[in-house]
Structure formats: structure tokens, C-alpha cells
Give the backbone structure.
Amino acid sequence: MDCKLELTLVFSSDLDQTLYAYLLKEIKSLAKTEFLRGIYKSNRLFLNFESDKELSGLIFKVVKRLKEVGRVYKLGVRDFYVPYYELCFTCDFTGKVKIPVGTCICNGENCRLIFMNLEKNFLRGGVNRTINRINSKIAKKEFVLASEKKKETSFEGDPIEEMKKNNLIKKGLIKEENFYLPEGAKLINILKNKILIEFKNKFKIEEIFIPSYTPLNLLSNENIIEFIPPEVFSEIVAKPKDKNKTYESYYLLGKVPKIETENIGILFDELPLILYKALENKKIDKEMFFYYLSNLKLVITFFDNKKNYEFLKKDITEFVKQLIDSFDLRYRILVKKLNGELFRFQSYIPYKKSWLSVLDIYFSNENYTRPFKIEGKSGEIVIYLENFLISEIAQKGYSTGSVK
């Protein structure tokens, strides 16, 4: 990695040649070969640095040192900023990588990342996160087929049409979502109860009820940003800034007006950050399982101490295989390294000759426990009850489905 950075410091009073030389000596003793040159004008000091490693940490050290030595001359550092920062790192991607902060262009050998007028707070981890995000966007992080259970299927029709024909669902009310009629809801409950009974027989699993949304402030923890998936921002919770005005406009005009809103949270509850917040500073002595129902998904979060976590991973993986085997479906298991390990169980849909995800296991290690100072490791299991039902009907038809 090659890095070039320009730093501007604003002092409380003008500099002279003697003071400039003194400050430069301190900078050189700290930054050594990473310091390139400097000049001063009035109360401003302009510095250039070059290094083969990321320079954000050095900048804060330099500012801290100058604040300390400046006291001798009653000289304070009023402000500092980075007008230019360029990083070059190796990669085999060719093209421009779209990012909201900075510009990144890659030529097949190197990626050149340029920042202009960086905010101080961004230097506290923002540069490294940008590099990680670029690497994530250009990396070929694909699922690898771990295993497949092959089985003859007895039905090849459209499962959705089969469900509509038998009054299990109603379509068209909300785009890409099904409305479950009583008979369909009954089948979803049968599935849910069957799965929960198996879990309760194997693990000590307890039900919890979580709030309807996750507040945005929980996402602002710098230690957790790296592990937040893009899907988190798929659905945002907002509230009107003036509820009464909105209602009166709606009532008088006879249509929904343009609403001025304030974003307050997210609806991505496959990752229950609010549960982690509730367990903040807790020491995990033994395995713990919590579950809750989120629309048509059954979400399970598990914890264990660091010593037993690997054993729990093996137990969970084997148990889930046996659970899906009990449904007598054709399925496959995909694995991806994703800040941990993600296992995706997919069932075969004969009608489309495609695969549908029915269950995910994410072994997240300390990704979410560490930011909340929870002593232990965790993971998440998301069971897509609707997809389980669709899979049953897709492979067996409605009349012969084992869930019925």
C-alpha cells in the first residue's frame, strides 16, 4: 500500500521560524521517515506524509504531540483537517468502484483511492472501512456447494398457483408478498410448531418479544459498522414530523399528502441488535437460545462461551441437517465465508428448476458480542417458514404435503 496525505493545522497564534523549526523537529521525531515536508504561513502549518501503511492513526498522534509541546509556547491547536489523502493498494479489478465518500479507480493491478477534505471523525476508522468496502464490492465472495441431498419429487406444478387454488393465500394485495388465509396460516403454524418442538427437545430455547423496530442509534457503534449487511437498510421506519397536520391534510384533501418524516429505525430484525443491547456487559457462562417470530420468519439467536462455541457450532449444524431431513425434501447446503461463516440451506423447486432458501445459519463469532461488551460468542438462525411451505408444496403438491 502506498499512501500520500496532506495535513493542515490551525494554531491559536501566528508561527515564526523558530517556533516552526521546533514543531518540525517534534514531528520528525514522531513520524520519522513517514514525514515528507512542511511549510507554514501565518497561523497555519501545512504538512505532507508518505507511507506504505494507512496514515490516519499517525495524524492523531501528530496532533496530540503538537498540542502537548505547544503548551510551552502557549500555543494551542485550534483545528486540523486533511485536504487530500491518496491511497494505492493492489487488486485485480478494472474499472471505477462507486462509493459515497472518495473516488476509487482500479486498473487491474492497483486501486487508487482519493479523498478530498476529510472530516476528522472519518479518520477514526472511516478510511479502513472504505478500503474494506471496496475489497468487499470487488471480491468474488460466492457460495460454495457443501453438499446436496437428491430425492425424486412427486409434483412439478407451480406451488403458488397450487396455494391460490386451495385457498391458502391471496395474491396482489401487496407486491411480492402473500396474504395468508386461515387454512394457509394454519399450515404455517404447524410448520412453526414442529420446528420449535425439535429445537426445544435439543436445546434450552426461550421465547422473547422484541420491539417493532431497531433504533438507528444502535447502528452508530463504530465497532459494529464492519459487520452490518447492506440489507439492513432495505426498510426504514419513519414518523411524521407533524402528525396532526398530516392527518388534517389527508382528511380535507381526500388523499395522502406529501409527508415530511424523520427516520427513527430499521425493520431488519434478522439481526436483533436490540437483544445484544439488552445483554450488554453480560458474561456468557453456558449456551443460551432465544427465539421470536418475525412475520413469516422464525429467528433464533444463540450464545455460548468462547471455550464451548466450536462444539456448539457442530451441534447446531448437525441438528439442522437432521431437522431438514425430517421434511423429506430435496435440498442443498451452501457455505460462504462472511465475517464468520454462513450456511444456507436451499430446497429444490421443480417447477422453476431453481433453488429457494429455507434456512440460514450465521456463525458470527464475536462480531456482535464484542461491541456490546458481551463476554462470549453468538450466531443467528433464520428459518423462512413461508419458503418451507412453498417447498413442501413444490415438491409434493398440496394433497400429499407432509405439513398438511
Residues 144-210+269-396 form a domain with the BirA Bifunctional Protein; domain 2 fold (CATH 3.30.930.10). The first strand starts at residue 2 and ends at 11. The two ends are 60 Å apart (CA to CA).
